[in-house]
Amino acid sequence: MEDKTIIKTKVLIGCDGVHSVVASWLGLRKPVYSGRSAFRGLGVMPQGHGLNNESHIFLQDGYRVGVGPLNDQQAHWFIIYNCSSLEEDEENNMMRAMDSKILMKKVLRMVANFPPLFLQLVQHTDPATLTWAPLMFRLPWDLMFRDLSIGIVTVAGDALHPMTPELGQGGCTALEDAIVLGRHIGTCFLKHKIIQPLEVAKVLKLYANERRFRAVSLILASYLFGWFQLDGSFQWLKSYARDTIFFKYVYLRTIAHVTKYDCGKLPIV
């Protein structure tokens, strides 16, 4: 550990986030910047926001903003915007350490031309809930061609498959990892009545192979959905295709497909 403590274990599952030390040990390369960054906050309107349990997304000139109600008074909101490199977004990196009120002023300038509903939610946001982060993802071919487990060591969650948020599946996919891990390790334990490192190494390989293609497909779909909504040339053509085809047919069908994924059944003790 960082304080030089040594912990001996029969299984090591790295759930240590986007900048995972365990993933680096496995040989996975660092996640890359997607070209998009995000502000997030929590708006609180005591008189009620009037969203009626409906989420809203607005697209405009390289910005994608959205709101999702948590209850009658509170709503989560986000702003995703294009920035070609992290170096160009260095101002926000520096602002992480600045007063949250300064961050709020920047956000209010960004949303000045968006619908009044969104502007009001931002204005009613506690600056302490405001966050900024670059949107990172792991290159799909890195997952395809590198070991996701070595011996008794593997990774799960963002340590395995950081992705952009367009499909809203980052946390959901981490829960899938937990179920698949529980299924494989639990079955192994019930069979041998003990944690045997050699047997665990085999089932971690099964887990890694099972999760590999699922993670790759979600990373690719999330990134491409974000690109289609925000990036690229021929903006007028993209806008037409997005509004007449993408949201009506592709987006909803993809969401339905990814959310109906079956993780299998946990072993019965």
Keywords summarizing the entry:
44% helix; three-stranded mixed sheet; D-Amino Acid Oxidase, Chain A, domain 2; 8 helices; five-stranded antiparallel sheet; FAD/NAD(P)-binding domain; 2 domains; 269 residues
Can you offer a commentary on this structure?
It is a single chain. By secondary structure, the chain is of the alpha+beta class. It folds into two domains: 140 residues, FAD/NAD(P)-binding domain, CATH 3.50.50; 105 residues, D-Amino Acid Oxidase, Chain A, domain 2 (2-Layer Sandwich). The protein has eight helices and eight strands, in the order E-H-E-E-E-E-H-H-H-E-H-E-E-H-H-H. It has a five-stranded antiparallel sheet with strand order 3-4-5-2-6. The chain has a three-stranded mixed sheet with strand order 1-8-7. The two termini are 34 Å apart. The model has no long low-confidence stretch (mean pLDDT 86).
Count up the domains: 2
Number of E strands = 8
Q: What's the architecture of the largest domain, going by CATH? A: 3-Layer(bba) Sandwich
Write down the CATH class of the largest domain.
Alpha Beta
Q: Which fold does the CATH topology of the largest domain refer to?
A: FAD/NAD(P)-binding domain
The helicity comes to 40-55%
Topology as a string of helices (H) and strands (E): EHEEEEHHHEHEEHHH
Number of helices: 8
Structural class: alpha+beta
Strand order of the largest sheet: 3-4-5-2-6
Q: What is the averaged pLDDT score?
A: 86
Strand content: 15-25%
Reported for the largest beta sheet, the result is: 5 strands, antiparallel
Please tell me what the overall shape is.
elongated
**Radius of gyration using CA atoms only:** 21 Å
CATH superfamily of the largest domain: FAD/NAD(P)-binding domain
Low-confidence stretches: none
The termini sit apart by 34 Å
Protein name: FAD-binding domain-containing protein
Keywords: Monooxygenase, Oxidoreductase
Domain FAD-binding: 144-186
Pfam families: FAD_binding_3
